[in-house]
Structures are given as structure tokens and as C-alpha cells.
Design goal:
single chain, 202 residues, alpha+beta, Nuclear Transport Factor 2, Chain: A, 2 domains, 4 helices, globular
């Protein structure tokens, strides 16, 4: 009888240790799976630093094109610069969308004699798909029939699309006390290490 009890006890202990061993293995597998998942997440969230110099060069070309288009009141050229969802806040506080802005250029409600950018400063997002630019713009021209000659600070929002960089939004503020006379055309020299600046929204 004692042998039966002893055999039963041994079998019970063996079963217990087997169960514990299986549970430990399961825990180890779960831990390993968790570690693998964490490693994968870390790899996915790691973002290579954006090539700022290359992006600045691309925006420089866009801003050169913008300055040329403004100086010529070329709505067709600006049509290629503005994003589809472009919005702007004019110097008088009014808001215009892309269609409004282009229509104002075509009709002469907004008319430039000259436009010169300077003091450009850009910040890009880590993914290299967006940027905010602040610049100074010295202009001569008219806005809704009134002179808009002066020096302005312009904030631009840029988005990188399948067709390249586009101006998605902007806001213009007059710099009080600044000289109104525009600089010479050759003064549009980019600040070292910075792209040219966004265009104003008059």
C-alpha cells in the first residue's frame, strides 16, 4: 500500500515539475516575442535625419521662381507654386484661398512693381515633408488700388508634394518704421546655409 502511495506522490511531483517547466518555456517565449516586437517598433520609429541642405536648395529654387512671378504679376507661374489648399492672410487681415489669390493677380487688384526677399530663415520637420519659413519682403505696388510700398515680415508654410515643394499657406505683417524703398534687384542674395524666403500675400 505504501508503494502505491509513494508511486502516486512521485507521479504527482513529476507532473508538477513538467507543468512548471512548460510554463517557464511559455513565459520565455512570450518575453522573446515582446523583445522582438519592441525591436521592430524601435526600427520602425527610427527616422533618418532629413537632408536639410538639399531641401533648402529646393526651396531656394521655389523662392527664386516666386520672386520672378511676383515681379511680373505672372498668375500662371504662381499657379504652379501654390498648393491646391493654399490659404493666405493679407496685410489688411482678409483671408484668401488659392483661387482668390490668382484672380486678384490677374485682375490687377494686387499689382507688383518690384519684390525682393531677404533675411530668410527656415525650419523643417524631421520627416522632411514640411517647412515653416520667415523672411523679409520689400515691395512696391498696389493692393486693392492703394499703395502697398513697404517692408514686410512674411511667414510661409511649405509642403512637399509629388510635384515638389509647394506654398501651402502664408501671412504678411508690415514692419513698422522700416524703410519703404525696395532694395536693388541684386540684393536677393540668400543667407549662407538658408534657402530663399516665402512670398508675400497682398
Amino acid at each position: 500500500m505504501k508503494r502505491v502511495y509513494l508511486a502516486s506522490a512521485v507521479l504527482a511531483l513529476a507532473a508538477f515539475f513538467v507543468a512548471c517547466g512548460d510554463q517557464g518555456g511559455a513565459n520565455n517565449k512570450a518575453a522573446n516575442a515582446g523583445n522582438s516586437s519592441n525591436a521592430a517598433n524601435a526600427a520602425n520609429t527610427a527616422t533618418a535625419p532629413a537632408n536639410t541642405a538639399a531641401m533648402q536648395a529646393e526651396l531656394q529654387k521655389l523662392m527664386d521662381a516666386t520672386q520672378a512671378a511676383l515681379s511680373k504679376n505672372d498668375a500662371d507661374a504662381l499657379d504652379k507654386i501654390y498648393a491646391e489648399n493654399y490659404m493666405t492672410v493679407n496685410q489688411d487681415g482678409t483671408v484668401a484661398n488659392r483661387a482668390d489669390r490668382l484672380a486678384a493677380i490677374k485682375s490687377g487688384d494686387v499689382k507688383y512693381e518690384s519684390a525682393v526677399f531677404s533675411e530668410q530663415n527656415f525650419r523643417f520637420n524631421p520627416e522632411g515633408t514640411g517647412a515653416i519659413g520667415i523672411t523679409k519682403l520689400t515691395i512696391k505696388g498696389t493692393f486693392k488700388g492703394k499703395p502697398m510700398d513697404g517692408v514686410y515680415r512674411v511667414t510661409g508654410i511649405y509642403s512637399k508634394t509629388k510635384d515638389g515643394w509647394k506654398l501651402a499657406g502664408s501671412q504678411t505683417t508690415r514692419i513698422e518704421g522700416a524703410a519703404d524703398a525696395p532694395k536693388a534687384a541684386n540684393s536677393n542674395t540668400a543667407v549662407p546655409g538658408k534657402a530663399n524666403a516665402p512670398e508675400a500675400n497682398k
